[in-house]
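User: Predict structure, ligand 5-phosphoarabinonic acid.
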Amino acid sequence: MKFSYEKSLLEDSAIEPLIQELSPYRDHLKTVSKHTDYLEPESALQLPSDKALLENVTNSAIRLHSPTLQYIIVIGIGGSNLGTQAVYEAIAGSMNLLVDRLPKLIFLDTVTDEKMTAVTRILEHLTNIDDFLVITISKSGTTTEPIANTEVLWSAIEMQFGDPRSRFVFITDEGSPLWKIAEQKKIEHFSVPPHVGGRYSVFSTVGLLPLALAGIDIAEFVAGAKRAVIDGTSPQTSKNHALVSACLTHLHVKQGRTIHNSFLFSPKFEVLGKWYRQLMGESIGKERDLEGNPVHAGITPIVSIGSTDLHSMAQLYWGGPDDKYTHLISSFTGEVHALPHQVALQGLIPNINGKSLESIMQAIYGGVKSAYEKKERPYVEIDLGQADARELGYYLQFRMIEMMYLARLMNVNAFDQPAVELYKETTRELLT
Ligand code: PA5
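Assistant: Predicted complex:
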C-alpha cells in the first residue's frame, strides 16, 4: 500500500507535535500487539499473529467445505459482516457474477423481504443440503436483524431439506445467548475474543472463516495485517502511515474539515468504504470524552465511488464549503477491456479509440486530482496495488490502527458504541 500526503495541504512540521504526543500510545500498541492474552481494548492487534487461530480456521474451512458447496450465506450486521463483505467484493467484484468463483458469499444484513426472497429462491434450486452453508455472526448474540434472518432461513431450509443443523455455523461471544443455543442444539460454533469489538473483528473467525470458505487466501490476508501492525507501531514515520494519517485527519478536523470523504475508484470497493465509515462513525462519534465530560465529538465519514459520484457530488466537493478532507483510494491492476481501434460511434469522444477502460479511469483519476489542486482542497492518495488478499489485509489493519491513534488524539474511547444500544433496546421493546 502506498500512502502519499503531499497534497494534504499540511506541512510535516504541523504533524510533528502530534506524533510526539502519540509516542507513548504507539509504544503501548506495540506492547499490546505482542501479547497473546486478548485482554486489552486494542487486542484486535493480536489477531494477525495468532497462529493457532489461523490454523484452526483453515482446518475448519476444509472440514466445512463440501465438494458441492455453491453458496455461503453470511448473516450478520455492522461489524459482524462489513469487513468480510468489503474484502470479498474487493476480490470477487461488486456484482458477484463471475460464475467460475465458487462458492459465492451472499450477505444478509438488514431484514428485507426482497433479499430474503432472492436467497430462498437460490436455495429452492439446490438439490443437495451440502450445496450451501449459513454462517450467522453476532458477537452479542442478541441483535434483532441477524436473529430474525436466521430464523426465516432456518425454517425455509427445514421445510425443504429437513433438519438444518448441519448447515448452520454460529460465530458469537462465548456464553452469549446464541452460543448457549448452539450448545443445546449441537450446532457448530466459534467464539470471538471478548475484547475484540465488531468493527475490529475481521481478522478473527468473524472474517477469516467465511473468507477462507470462499477460497480467499487468509494466510496472505493476515500476513498483510501483520505487516501493518509492525509498520503502524514503528517509530519510523516514513513507514507508519497509520500514525501520520491520524495526525493529518485530526488537524483537518481542527481546521473545520469535519467530513471525511473516502473516494474509492471502483464500485468493487464500495463496501470497503462503508466498512471504514462504520469504523470511523462508531469509534469517533462520542457523547463523552475519556474523562466522562460531554463533548459530542465526531467526524462524518462519507463514501464516494469514482467515477460514478463525480456526476452527483463533484460539484459540491469543489464548489461547496471547504469542510471535507478526502482520501483518494485506487488500484489500477492492468487492462482487460479496451475499445476497438475503429469505434462504432465515431467522433463522439476524441482520442478514445483503442483505449482500455482502465486507462480511461486513470485519466479520470488524474482529472480528479487536478480539480482538487485547482480548488485547493486537501487530499491524500492511497494506492492499494493489486488489491489482493495481502494488500487488503494491510489496508484494513492500517485503518484500525489509524482509528486508535485518532481516537486518542480526540480523547474518546475508540472501542465502545453506547448510542447504538439505544435503538437495539427499543426495537426489542417494540416487538413485545
Ligand atoms: O462494531 C460494532 O460493534 C457493531 O457495529 C456491531 O458489530 C453490530 O451492532 C452488530 O452487533 P452484533 O455482532 O452483536 O450482532
